[in-house]
Design a protein that fits this description.
Keywords: Amino-acid transport, Membrane, Mitochondrion, Transmembrane, Transmembrane helix, Transport. It is a multi-pass membrane protein. One of its GO terms (cellular component) is mitochondrial inner membrane. One of its GO terms (biological process) is mitochondrial transmembrane transport. Its main location: mitochondrion. The protein is an all-alpha fold. Helix content is 59%, strand content 0%. Helix 2 (45-60) crosses helix 3 (69-83). The longest helix has 29 residues, at 92-120. It starts with 24 loop residues before the first helix and ends with a helix. The relative contact order is 0.15.
């Protein structure tokens, strides 16, 4: 089995295990921050597929040469967050469309509140 290159910043990779110690508050807190990382919103479908393939290679013992623990932990995070349905893969166009809808909603809400205030005078 091919093993990953160890990094001082990352513990040795363990498939389907949390990266941070769950028996301490700090470990649970760091795990929470890792899971809600908003950068995963910008993950492309291609990147998700790469992560799934890397983890499959790990299971089969055929890791590419030079694969690091950091790459494996990041791949597991992306796969778990995006495949679990916690976040949807959003492309910039979708994000902009959602932003426009939200802004339109708040604009209408603002106008309604201003109208109500004006009518109460």
């Amino acid at each position: 089995m091919t093993t990953a290159v160890h990094s001082d910043d990352y513990p040795p990779f363990q498939l389907n295990r949390p990266r941070f110690d769950q028996s301490t508050f700090l470990g649970r807190y760091r795990h929470f921050l890792d899971v809600i990382d908003p950068r995963t919103l910008f993950t492309t479908k291609e990147r998700l597929e790469e992560c799934v393939k890397l983890l499959d290679d790990y299971k089969e013992g055929t890791l590419p040469e030079g694969t690091t623990d950091k790459q494996l932990w990041e791949a597991q995070k992306i796969k778990q967050v995006l495949k679990s349905g916690s976040w949807k893969i959003l492309e910039c166009k979708t994000i902009m469309e959602k932003s426009r809808k939200v802004m339109k909603f708040y604009t209408y809400l603002y106008l309604i509140v201003l109208s109500a205030i004006w009518l109460s005078l």
